[in-house]
């Protein structure tokens, strides 16, 4: 038996059929834009919110001609190979699970690089330095801010794997690598302590004057 809860409705807010785009997955950037992955055509787009039938995505990386491959470099020259997922870090860098290349790619303002896998055309399960690592062709990735790392859900190998990122990729860390949240809590506690001391001193001066 199916019981529907009232008050909900479905509306198409983006129609990729007229643009030759096949949405596969989406993510929000820290800036509030929507990233849209077209796995079939090996492209990644950026779309401004709110979505509408008149939204026009801008190509971030890939090929408008639908060409696939494993090419790093400038954004418009780089090529992906039927990626199956992606994630975004605190600074807006994009990490792509480039499935058919069995590689993890990083997209930043300066271009596209490979940070793990992709050296061999044969999949596998190998940990170690990024250029020696091997993945299956069925995996996803997730950014974990608290540990400044990527988790790789490697379904083909029935494993969860981790890639520590560079400190510069994680906004929650300061230049010394100390967690920013902890630093803020420490600063708040320190100023609270100093304020309490100041209040006690003022009260002491007032009491002495009245006496």
Automatic annotation (TrEMBL):
Tagged with keyword Membrane: yes
Transmembrane segments: 176-198
Superkingdom of source: Eukaryota
UniProt domain Teneurin NHL: residue ranges: 74-121
SUPFAM superfamilies: NHL repeat
The keyword Transmembrane belongs to this UniProt entry's keyword annotation: yes
Keywords of the record: Membrane, Transmembrane, Transmembrane helix
Protein's UniProt name: Teneurin NHL domain-containing protein
């Amino acid at each position: 038996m199916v019981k529907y809860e009232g008050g909900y409705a479905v509306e198409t807010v983006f129609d990729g059929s007229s643009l030759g785009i096949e949405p596969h997955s989406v993510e929000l950037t820290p800036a509030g834009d929507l990233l849209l992955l077209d796995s079939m055509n090996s492209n990644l787009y950026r779309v401004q919110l709110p979505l509408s039938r008149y939204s026009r995505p801008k190509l971030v990386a890939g090929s408008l001609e639908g060409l696939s491959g494993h090419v790093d470099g400038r954004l418009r020259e780089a090529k992906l190979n039927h990626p199956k997922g992606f994630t975004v870090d605190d600074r807006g860098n994009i990490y792509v699970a480039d499935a058919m290349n069995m590689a993890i790619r990083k997209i930043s303002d300066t271009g596209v690089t490979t940070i793990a896998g992709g050296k061999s055309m044969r999949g596998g399960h190998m940990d170690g330095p990024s250029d020696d690592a091997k993945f299956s062709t069925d995996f996803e990735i997730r950014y974990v801010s608290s540990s400044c790392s990527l988790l790789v859900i490697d379904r083909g190998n029935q494993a969860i794997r981790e890639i520590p990122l560079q400190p510069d990729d994680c906004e929650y860390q300061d230049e010394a690598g100390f967690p920013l949240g902890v630093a803020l809590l420490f600063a708040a506690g320190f100023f609270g302590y100093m304020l309490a001391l100041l209040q006690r001193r003022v009260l002491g001066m007032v009491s002495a004057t009245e006496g």
